[in-house]
Amino acid sequence: MNESDLDKAWKSDGNQLSDQDARKLSDEFMTTMHRRRRVERLWLIWIFATLGMTSILAGWLVLATDRVRLNHEWSLVPMLAIPWVFAVYFLRQYREKSKPTPGTSLTIEQTLKQSLLRNTSERRRLRMIGTLYLIMIPTMTIVIQQLENAGKVNPHEISSIYLFLFATLFFSGSFVAWRYFLKLTPEANRLQNLTKQYDMTSTH
Fold it and tell me: How far is residue 40's CA from residue 42's CA, in Å, rounded to a whole number?
């Protein structure tokens, strides 16, 4: 399901499709919705599993050992808490989305509007991910400095840690920026134009 299919749909005679073509367009859209929702669900499972295991390990280090002293390494708390806040937000966003109903048939207008809503939701999620990356840069910098001050990181290892950290954030951020600016934003503009043109045509 893509914009070219929708483009062909609204350009059809009188914006009318045969029942077979309309059903095919609707089915393709619903299939895409199900696939993207499934991918988002798996992504959330991975996020919560990773955060859960990391939090359990951190809790064990703090409560069961003397390896972590929060009075000197307090930055570990926001380092874990901030991703949890964002993860909960992503989960709420996921649950607030309407779940596609199997066998549902949508009109062209409904398909356009649902596609635009899906695009808007995805762009919002990527903006939040980008915000998380920006917040984590100073947070991780403080964590590394505190670990160095506590003698848990050798001075000659600092440059390697920073290189790995910022390389990871750079490549992850680049992918987010590519998807947001080069894929989803043009798609949103395209869908908005199609919706406006469909509305104008359908009123005549």
Answer: 5
Reduced to 3 states (helix: H, G, I; strand: E, B; else coil), residue 135 is helix
Exposure letters 121-134 (e unless 16+ CB within 10 A, then b): bbbebbeebeebee
What's the CA gap between 197 and 164, in Å, rounded?
A: 48
Judge whether 39 and 120 are in contact, CB under 8 Å. no
Rounded distance between C-alpha atoms, residue 19 and residue 79, angstroms? 54
Domain positions in the chain are 3-202
First to last CA, the chain: 27
In whole angstroms, give the CA distance from residue 184 to residue 198. Answer: 21
Of 36-45, 170-179, 192-201, least confident by mean pLDDT is: 192-201
Among 55, 90, 61, 89, which residue's Cα sits nearest to residue 73?
61
- Per-residue pLDDT tens over the stretch 75-129: 999 999 999 999 999 999 999 876 665 555 667 778 888 889 989 999 999 999 9
Contact 108, 116 (CB under 8 A): no
Name the residue among 11, 2, 1, 22 with its Cα closest to residue 197: 11
